[in-house]
Amino acid sequence: MSYRVKLVPRPVVIDADGLPVPNSHVVEITFPGDAIETALGRVNTIVGPGTAKVLVGDATIRGVRLF
């Protein structure tokens, strides 16, 4: 089964048809980051697409794409 996480209006796990997945929960959302130099010093910034860790039933699934 393919899952994605829809962020708006709240994080929710959706299936390939765009429907909410019953008995699911978004546990964590992460974005790859890096520090860049600015005139005010080093600032953390997002450098790529985020991924989520979700629970579907008793299964933990990592690396779920955000939508």
UniProtKB/TrEMBL annotation:
It comes from the Bacteria. It comes from Sphingomonas glacialis. This is Uncharacterized protein.
